[in-house]
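Entry 14. Ran structure prediction on the chain below.
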Amino acid sequence: MFELMPDSYLSTDKKIITSAKLLIYDSYQNKFLVIKRGLNHQHNPGLWELPGGKIIFPELINIGLSREVMEETDLLINLEDTEILSIKSRKITDKNSSYNGFIFELMAGFINQSINLEKVQPSDEHIDKKLITIDYNCLKDQDLTLDSKLIINYFLDNIIETS
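Output, structure tokens:
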């Protein structure tokens, strides 16, 4: 289910939606950054999520993810050497969605970087920001999007050592 993707990975299939999220982890604080979707947003209104979004062909995943993080948080992050993981793929079966029949691929990156919350400026589609202590208890927070929970769980299981 989880696999490493090369930095040059990109999808040319017009029926694949690639979404990439970044877990920005501050090991000194043992916290990570989340941003809150606007209450009137079509997708996941009012929920907290990791920064990121759709990768636009022919962008490389790490370039598109850097762009999305900048758009959503105003943080400039260099993901040049960051490994990108494929966390989950699923077919969209919602007949009311314009993406019915598409494959949704969730990608994720991880970076350990100090976070100054005052420098984070959420985009127009987000209404708040916060740092959350990273441990398995944070996964019980019903205000996190499912995609964010999947990514956080993966990194807790495989990358981050919690005490």
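The CA atoms of residues 32 and 132 lie 5 Å apart. Will compare against last week's run tomorrow.
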